[in-house]
Amino acid sequence: MSGVSLAVGPRTDVDKTSTSSSGEKGRRSAMTAAGGGALMGSLRVIELQLVAFILVFSASGLVPLLDMLFPAFASVYIIALSRLAFPSHAVSTASPEVFRGSKLFRIYVVSGTVIGLFLPLAYVLGGFARGDDHAVRSATPHLFLLSCQILTENVISGLSLFSPPVRALVPLLYTVWRIFVIIDWFKDVWFNKSLPINATPNVVAWFWFGRYLAIANLGYFGVNLLCFLIPRFLPRAFDQYFRERDEILAKSEEDKPVQVPRSKPSEHKSD
User: What span is annotated as the signal peptide, if there is one (predicted)?
Assistant: First the structure.
C-alpha cells in the first residue's frame, strides 16, 4: 500500500544468490531475505482478502460519487501513461524492483497497514455494530480508495507492461486524493461530532478512538507522501527507467553493423 506493493518486490533472486553462496554470512542474509519476503507475501494475501470485502462493503452507497469515479479515472490515466509517455523497456516477464527497503522500512510498512487499513476497518465495523452512522460514513471513503489502490498496486506489480515511473505514480495519485478524503474525515470527527452529555466510558473511548485514528492516518500518509513517495520513490523510479533506456540505446548502437564506405572508381578522361 502507498507504494509498498511496488516498492518492496519479491526477493526470490536475492534468496537464490544468497543460498548458493558459501559461508555463515550468506546463510544469514538468505534467511533474513526469505523471512522478509514471506512477511510481505502474507501481508499482501491478507490485504487482497480484505480488499474483496471492502469493495462490496463500500458499494452500499456510503462512498461519494467522485470517490467512486476516481479509480476509473486513475486506471485510464495509468494505462495512457504506460502506452504514450513511459512505455516499458523491460525484457523479462517479472516486474523490476524499484525500491529495496531495510528492516526498519518493513516495520514502517506494516505499521502503515495497521493504521491505514486494519484499524479503520475495525472502526467502520464497530460503527455498524454500535449504530454509529457518522463513523461509518466518515471512514468508508478512505477504505474504499485504499482498497482500490492496493488492488491496482498488486496487479501492476506482477506485470512488466508497466514501467517504473508508471508504477510509482499509482500510489502517488491515490495518496494525494486520499489526503483530501482523510481531511474530510478529520473535520467530521473533530468538528461535526460531539459527545453526548451523559456519555458512558465506552462511548467516550470510542469517540476519542475515532478522532485519534483520523489524526494518525493524516499524519502517516502525509509523511509517506512528502518524505517517501515524492523525494525518494518517484526519483528512483525515473532514474531506473532512463538508465534502462540508455542501456538499451547503447546496446542497439553497438549491435549496428559498421558500414564501410565504398571507394568510387576513378574516372579517366579520354584524350
Answer: none
Q: Is residue 252 part of a domain?
A: no
Q: Nearest CA to 183 among 207, 144, 215?
A: 215
pLDDT digits (tens, 9 = 90+) for 45-70: 666 676 777 777 777 788 999 999 99
Q: Does residue 144 contact residue 34 with C-beta atoms inside 8 Å?
A: no
CA atoms within 13 A on the CB side of 165: 20
Structural domain contains residue 124: yes
Structural domain containing residue 237: 4-8+29-86+93-247
The torsion of the CA quartet 159, 93, 240, 155, rounded to 10 degrees, works out to: 10
What are the residues facing 162 on neighbouring strands?
87
E strand or H helix at 213: helix 201-224
Global pTM?
0.77
Give me the pLDDT at residue 10, please.
44
Cell of 190: 473533530
H-type alpha helices, 158-194: 164-191
CA angle 222, 223, 226 (to 5 degrees): 85
User: Which residues are CB-contacts of 54 (< 8 A; sequence separation ≥ 6)?
Assistant: 121, 143, 144, 146, 147
* 13 domain residue, yes or no: no
Does a structural domain hold residue 146?
yes
In whole angstroms, give the CA distance from residue 93 to residue 158: 9
Contact status, residue 120 vs residue 214, Cβ threshold 8 Å: no
